[in-house]
Amino acid sequence: MIKLLDRTSHWVARATDIVVIGMASVMMTALILQVFSRYVLGASLVWSEELALILFTWTTLLAATSVLRDMAHVRLDVLISYLPGGLRLWWERAITLAILAFCIALAVSGYDYTVSTMGQVSAAMRLPIEVLHLAAPVCGGLGALHALARLFRPAAPAETPKEIVG
Tens digit of pLDDT for each residue in 102-136? Predict the structure, then answer.
């Protein structure tokens, strides 16, 4: 069961990476079109800024979930690297539990917020606002999946702290 959870997390993270690349490409294209249209053609596009905002939100949150899987996010681990193996493992598990709690809270509150704003539409593109607001519960759920997989993954052997070269 744990192996299935880890494999699912792995493949979801890889699929998320592909989606993030696609969304970032579309976002950059929309922004380039906006700049071209405004400064070369002298007319602004009404939809490009709103599309870029929606894609930026999704891209940022989705990218954050896929780095949770391998704990590749930005963090300070200077002090952690000097902890003994058992204490370091305990600290890593505590951090993963905190991330899991945050992701569950994000999923639940994001879902509640999305439900409370249903029926509204975006200003320029007239899209259902849920297109934007669903980023929170979806990414909270994905983050929780990755945190659970990390929590139950077998512990890696403890590394020795790297010496400071001065």
Answer: 999 999 999 999 999 999 999 999 999 999 999 99
pTM of the model: 0.84
SS (H, E, C) the chain: CHHHHHHHHHHHHHHHHHHHHHHHHHHHHHHHHHHHHHHHHCCCCCCHHHHHHHHHHHHHHHHHHHHHHCCCCCCCCCCHHHCCHHHHHHHHHHHHHHHHHHHHHHHHHHHHHHHHCCCCECCCCCCECHHHHCHHHHHHHHHHHHHHHHHHCCCCCCCCCCCCCC
In the chain, where the domains are located: 2-152
